[in-house]
Amino acid sequence: MTDSGEPLVVLDGVNKHFGDLHVLQDINLTVRRGEVVVVIGPSGSGKSTLCRAINRLETIDSGTITIDGKVLPEEGKELAQLRSDVGMVFQSFNLFAHKTVLDNVTLGPIKVRKINKAKAVERARELLKRVGVDAQERKFPAQMSGGQQQRVAIARSLAMDPKVMLFDEPTSALDPEMINEVLDVMAALAKEGMTMVVVTHEMGFARRAADRVVFMADGQIVEENTPEEFFTNPRSDRAKDFLSKILAH
Ligand SMILES: Nc1ncnc2c1ncn2[C@@H]1O[C@H](COP(=O)(O)OP(=O)(O)OP(=O)(O)O)[C@@H](O)[C@H]1O
Ligand SMILES: [Mg+2]
């Protein structure tokens, strides 16, 4: 929760096309250590592509993405290493369906981080407690609510000790009564100093937890500001129009 932290994620002149569609247009964005950046904008504006590029699930055409001082390479061992520094939670609960909650959380640390099983289990239990699903470690994902599954997905990402967490609309597939339990976990994480990039339409969360709001439209960052300034005093017509639509319902 500081703007004086060093740059942790830096996008410099990033461009990405899907065929003729210029989906990321010369994106420059710096996320500092401990900062929480909320990305909002209309459907199709490139928010998911931005997240996926940071995690290198999408390639970029030009520009650079730097994570903690290292430029994301095209491929290879170094990419795997850097990628494991970036945790990601998606809209759909992408847990391993045939594995228990505990196995979901310990798998990455054991296989990728080479942590011994007892240590991984101990840490997983801590994390499951932190996200409020500690009594359910023997369950399979299908035996849990969407909100619980999403909290397990957060625990699973945290188990890899990421330097930054990306969230792409983590609550948009949830029933309304489960949204807050996930947002509360995210807000607590933000308060503890986790560096986060969060794509969300939850304006209450943005106001409460974000250090900065980045507004995207048509593949560009149109505006960035503190949540207070952005919501009360948007500067661009695109942002004014967008806010009037989402705040209207
Ligand atoms: N794999 C792909 N191939 C072709 N076009 C794509 C692909 N992925 C995304 N697009 C297009 O790129 C644009 C940006 O998509 P993106 O998913 O990043 O938008 P978004 O801001 O996340 O939208 P939403 O709010 O609906 O999730 C859209 O026009 C989309 O149709
Ligand atoms: Mg999206």
UniProtKB/TrEMBL annotation:
<keyword id="KW-0547">Nucleotide-binding</keyword>
<dbReference type="InterPro" id="IPR003593">
    <property type="entry name" value="AAA+_ATPase"/>
</dbReference>
<keyword id="KW-0067">ATP-binding</keyword>
<feature type="domain" description="ABC transporter">
    <location>
        <begin position="9"/>
        <end position="243"/>
    </location>
</feature>
<protein>
    <recommendedName>
        <fullName>ABC-type polar-amino-acid transporter</fullName>
        <ecNumber>7.4.2.1</ecNumber>
    </recommendedName>
</protein>
<dbReference type="InterPro" id="IPR027417">
    <property type="entry name" value="P-loop_NTPase"/>
</dbReference>
<dbReference type="InterPro" id="IPR030679">
    <property type="entry name" value="ABC_ATPase_HisP-typ"/>
</dbReference>
<dbReference type="InterPro" id="IPR003439">
    <property type="entry name" value="ABC_transporter-like_ATP-bd"/>
</dbReference>
<dbReference type="InterPro" id="IPR050086">
    <property type="entry name" value="MetN_ABC_transporter-like"/>
</dbReference>
<dbReference type="GO" id="GO:0015426">
    <property type="term" value="F:ATPase-coupled polar amino acid-transporter activity"/>
</dbReference>
<dbReference type="GO" id="GO:0005886">
    <property type="term" value="C:plasma membrane"/>
</dbReference>
<keyword id="KW-0029">Amino-acid transport</keyword>
<keyword id="KW-1003">Cell membrane</keyword>
<dbReference type="InterPro" id="IPR017871">
    <property type="entry name" value="ABC_transporter-like_CS"/>
</dbReference>
<comment type="similarity">
    <text>Belongs to the ABC transporter superfamily.</text>
</comment>
<dbReference type="GO" id="GO:0016887">
    <property type="term" value="F:ATP hydrolysis activity"/>
</dbReference>
<dbReference type="GO" id="GO:0005524">
    <property type="term" value="F:ATP binding"/>
</dbReference>
<keyword id="KW-0813">Transport</keyword>
<dbReference type="Pfam" id="PF00005">
    <property type="entry name" value="ABC_tran"/>
</dbReference>
<keyword id="KW-0472">Membrane</keyword>
